């Protein structure tokens, strides 16, 4: 019987519900990114997003979807989110993961659009109303873990209100992004203690 390499990970006290990968100045291949989707599915991560500050990855999303779909098993499902169409689906049998590719347009321009729409609705603008609008548009919970691919710690313009409680871990790119490295990142995350301002 083949041993599942992710079995020990499933026993960790803390697994991220939403993993985000911030694509910085260190390039990751389609294959590496597709692996992250599959590994996340196997480890019980429900949401994964990729933040593409240049917009290049977003333009190649269809090709990326093909790479991921070729790696999927029959009873596993990826629910893709598009900025134009809500992708909420139910009724899947088997494992399921939600995937979204974010760009800078999901940041400050979204807040500006929220303010414009609230003005058009003749509502008093409050932080709560803007927050509700943004959450409705974003559709994902705030990320628990952000893996950033850069020599420097930067968010590259990631929507800041989403990162209030996010743990950041650097993916050092002197070696390929392997399954073992992914598992080590999850172990590091599991040991992080959120102090929430204390």
Automatic annotation (TrEMBL):
This is ditrans,polycis-polyprenyl diphosphate synthase [(2E,6E)-farnesyldiphosphate specific]. Its cofactor is Mg(2+). One of its GO terms (molecular function) is ditrans,polycis-polyprenyl diphosphate synthase [(2E,6E)-farnesyl diphosphate specific] activity. The gene is LOC108742587. It comes from Agrilus planipennis. Keywords: Endoplasmic reticulum, Magnesium, Membrane, Transferase, Transmembrane, Transmembrane helix. Belongs to the UPP synthase family. SUPFAM superfamilies: Undecaprenyl diphosphate synthase (SSF64005). The keyword Transmembrane applies. It catalyses: n isopentenyl diphosphate + (2E,6E)-farnesyl diphosphate = a di-trans,poly-cis-polyprenyl diphosphate + n diphosphate. It comes from the Eukaryota. One of its GO terms (cellular component) is endoplasmic reticulum membrane. The keyword Transcription does not apply. It is found in: Endoplasmic reticulum membrane. Pathway: Protein modification; protein glycosylation. Its EC number is 2.5.1.87.
């Amino acid at each position: 019987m083949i041993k599942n390499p992710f079995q020990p990970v499933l026993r960790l006290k803390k697994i991220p519900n939403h993993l985000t990968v911030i694509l910085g100045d260190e390039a990751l291949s389609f294959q590496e990114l597709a692996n992250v989707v599959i590994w996340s599915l196997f480890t019980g991560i429900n949401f994964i997003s990729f933040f593409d500050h240049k917009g290049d990855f977003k333009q190649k999303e269809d090709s990326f979807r093909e790479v991921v779909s070729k790696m999927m098993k029959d009873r596993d499902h990826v629910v893709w989110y598009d900025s134009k169409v809500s992708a909420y689906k139910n009724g899947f049998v088997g494992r399921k993961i939600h995937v979204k590719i974010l760009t800078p347009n999901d940041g400050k321009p979204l807040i500006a659009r929220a303010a414009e729409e609230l003005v058009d609705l003749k509502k008093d603008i409050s932080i709560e109303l803007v927050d509700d609008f943004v959450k409705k548009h974003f559709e994902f919970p705030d990320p628990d873990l952000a893996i950033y691919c850069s020599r420097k710690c930067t968010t590259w313009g990631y929507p800041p209100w989403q990162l209030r409680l996010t743990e950041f871990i650097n993916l050092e790119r002197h070696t390929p992004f392997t399954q073992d490295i992914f598992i080590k990142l999850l172990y590091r995350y599991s040991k992080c203690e959120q102090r929430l301002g204390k």
